[in-house]
Specification:
By secondary structure, the protein is an all-alpha fold. It has helices spanning 8-26, 38-41, 45-62, 71-107. The longest helix has 37 residues, at 71-107.
Length: 117
């Protein structure tokens, strides 16, 4: 099927991938590193809300007392969140680009210039 904006999905996913890598690896380590999800959360909103809901459920079950948890638990959580936001977010943005391309083709269909009346 011929589509309008055929490369839109790749471009959007590429821009999101570059932005997410910049945000995750560009934020300094330490206390200020915990702010990095804020810059990606709203871009992939429904998926990130589902991730945080499931992550909170798992942490409440696995770590009943957060103050007694070792620091490697929080570091692992940060790495898992980073992998999720980078990989799943890129796939989600690619999917949205595909949907927008199909909607643009549906709203503005190609004319068949070869028809002779």
């Amino acid at each position: 099927m011929k589509r309008r904006l055929p490369k839109l999905a790749r471009w959007l996913a590429g821009v999101y991938l570059a932005w997410s890598l910049f945000v995750f690896f560009g934020s300094p380590l330490g206390r200020s590193h915990e702010w990095w999800p804020l810059f990606l959360y709203f871009i992939i909103w429904p998926v990130s809300a589902l991730y945080h809901f499931l992550s909170d459920l798992c942490f409440d079950w696995l770590v009943p007392d957060p103050k007694s948890a070792p620091t490697w638990v929080w570091t692992l959580n940060d790495y898992v969140a980073g992998v999720f936001y980078i990989i799943v977010g890129t796939i989600w943005v690619w999917f949205l680009g595909r949907v927008l391309s199909r909607v643009a083709t549906w709203i503005f269909p190609f004319r068949d210039d070869n028809l002779v009346a």
